[in-house]
Every structure is written in C-alpha cells, then in structure tokens.
Design goal:
mainly alpha, 3 domains, 16 helices, about 0% strand, elongated
Length: about 350
C-alpha cells in the first residue's frame, strides 16, 4: 500500500524527476547501459512515462522504486505473464476501461461547447462502477451527446459561424491528416448527406477525441514493439557476453572457433538492433510531422476567431505537446538502439582482435 501511495504521488505530483540520458541516477539507466536488468529498467521507465493505461504507469513505477529495480523490471516485462501483461489486463477490464473513457471525455470535450458530456463525465468518475457502466454503455453517454447537440443547435452561433472554408479544411483533413482516427472522424463529418450538425460536432469534440485516440494508438503500438525487441536483444547480449567469456578462456584451435562463435553472436546483436533503430527513427519523424500539423491547427484556431475553431484551441495545444513528447521519446530510443548497435560492433571487433 505504501509503495502504491508513493507511486500515486509520483504520477500526480511529479516529485520524481526523469533525468536526461546518461545521468547516473538510481532507477534510470544511461543510453550506453546494456545488461539485461538495465535494459529492462529503461523500458519500464518508458511505460511509466508514456503508458496509455493508468494501471501500467502505476505498476511500472512500483517496479522502478522497488528494492531491486533490475529484477523487478525484468519480472514486469516477462512474457507471457509478467507484470506488464497483468497491468494491461486489469486496465482492460470493464470498469478500468470506463474510467479511461470518462477521463478521455474530459480531455476532449470542453465545458463551454459540450457542457452536458463534460459535466456527466466529471460526475460519473465519482460514482460506483455500476453507475459508470450505465452511463458509458447503457445510453447515458449518447443521451448527454444528444443534449449537447441540442444545446449547440439552440445556441446557433456555431452553425452561423460555419463557412465553406471550414468544410474545405475538414475535407483536407479527411484526405491528408497523419492520424488515422482524425481522418476517419473528418470523413464522417463531411460524408455524403452530412449536416451542419455533423460538422459542428466535429469541431466541438470529434476532432479532439479522434486526436487523443491517435496518440494512444501510437504509444501503445511503439511501446509494445519495443518490448518485443528488448526481450530479444537482452537475450542476445547475454549470449554474446557468455560466448566472449568462453572465447577468452579457450586456447588453440578451439579458441579460434570460440572467437568466431562470439563474433557471430555480437554480429547477431547488431543485426537485431538495426531494425529497431530504424523503426524508432520513423516514429520520430512521424511524431515531428504530427506536432507540426497540430502547431498549424493551433495557429488556424487562434486566427479564425469563431466558436467552432475556438473549441479547438486548448485541445490543439495539448495535442501538439503530446506529439512533442512522443518525438522526444522516439529520439531517445533511436539513440539508445544506435548505442546498442555500436556496442555490438565493438564487441565483434574486440573478439576478432583480442589484445
């Protein structure tokens, strides 16, 4: 209980700082570290910082702050039934999903333009699980959306503010936005037979909601991929180090064979590191493109000066910041995998040319 309380304090007060790569701080591994425990600890730190689910973040911090963070991190990432798998399973149970959904509504619906959904989401976060389920899947959410639609229609200012340029912009998003969820939401808003209500809904909440789904999908995908890569690379490094040790202790013709085997083992580490580095570079470039896109959306919203675009100012700021965080994560991870590639090359050369 004390550990969980400490983790909650970390998550919600920010009292534990995350150093830059290379800093010698307990619980955080430098870019050049490559023992299985350090590799695992580094990966768990990313789940603690960027995980989609609150249960994953909390359990990741529990592992990092334990008495033996290396062992706890390895256990957290263990497949197929480690702590990460268990945390995701808990997050994906019914009430956890409902809580995540309500929090997402609060992040993507403004009090000014979606007051009914915003108020209901705030209220049901404090209610028993059965009440949350009733709202999320028993018609409550749909009813709140309908009340907001009527509120905006009765107010009338958003429909009056619509211009053809707004439709053109949303059609452009449907074709060219980097996010698949935003493209889908924009396509629905300007589909054949769409009404002005569909378009004002898109500006009032649909755009921001879709953007949040794109962020969550990106983070879950890249972190899951990285977990698989690190699971493999930690094993390969252990094998390479063992092969190199055996080569140092073996002489004669057998020693040459042992060195060839060790060199091949380090070469395999490099072969497996290179694709991961390339994928993180792709993730870095995609995140930068998303951040630039949302910077342009924010500028357009600030300049438009009408209620439809006003609803997007705060979500655009938050979404740009999230993609900048994703870019920083990808830059750091690409550098880390590059360091593992260098270590593999150095290991191969060291075995081939013993001093």
């Amino acid at each position: 209980m004390l550990s969980c309380a400490l983790c909650a304090a970390v998550l919600f007060t920010g009292t534990v700082s995350v150093p830059v790569a290379g800093a010698a701080v307990p619980g955080v591994v430098s870019v050049s570290a490559a023992t299985p425990g350090e590799i695992a600890r580094r990966e768990v730190l990313y789940h603690a910082k960027y995980g989609v689910y609150a249960t994953v973040k909390t359990d990741a911090w529990v592992a990092l702050l334990s008495e033996d963070p290396d062992a706890a991190a390895i256990e957290f990432l263990r497949l197929p039934d480690g702590g990460l798998v268990f945390a995701k399973e808990r997050a994906q149970n019914l009430d956890k999903r409902n809580i995540d959904f309500l929090n997402r509504l609060l992040e993507t619906h403004t009090r000014q333009y979606s007051p009914e959904v915003y108020q209901a989401a705030s209220y049901y976060l404090t209610q028993p699980p059965s009440k949350r389920e009733e709202f999320c899947h028993g018609g409550g959410y749909e009813a709140a959306k309908a009340r907001d639609l009527k509120f905006r229609a009765d107010l009338g200012e958003q429909k009056r503010a619509l211009v053809e340029e707004d439709r053109r912009y949303v059609r452009m998003l449907a074709q060219n936005d980097p996010g698949a969820q935003v493209r889908f939401a924009a396509s629905y808003a300007v589909r054949a037979g769409a009404t002005d209500d569909d378009l004002t809904d898109f500006f009032a909440w649909g755009w921001a909601h879709a953007a949040r789904l794109d962020i969550e999908s990106f983070r879950e995908r890249v972190l899951d991929q990285n977990q698989q890569w690190l699971h493999t690379i930690a094993r390969l490094i252990t094998d390479a180090e063992a092969a190199e040790k055996a080569a140092r202790e073996t002489e004669g013709e057998a020693g040459k064979e042992a060195r060839d085997k060790a060199a091949a083992a380090w070469r395999n580490v490099g072969t497996q590191s290179s694709p991961a580095q390339s994928k993180w570079e792709e993730a870095r470039d995609f995140s930068r493109r998303q951040a630039e896109t949302w910077r342009a959306i924010l500028l357009a919203a600030q300049q438009a000066q009408n209620p439809n675009w006003n609803a997007m100012i705060d979500p655009a700021k938050a979404t740009e910041a999230d993609w900048e965080n994703n870019r920083s994560m990808a830059v750091d991870q690409a550098a880390y995998w590059e360091s593992l590639l260098r270590q593999a090359l150095e290991g191969e050369q060291r075995v081939k040319n013993p001093s």
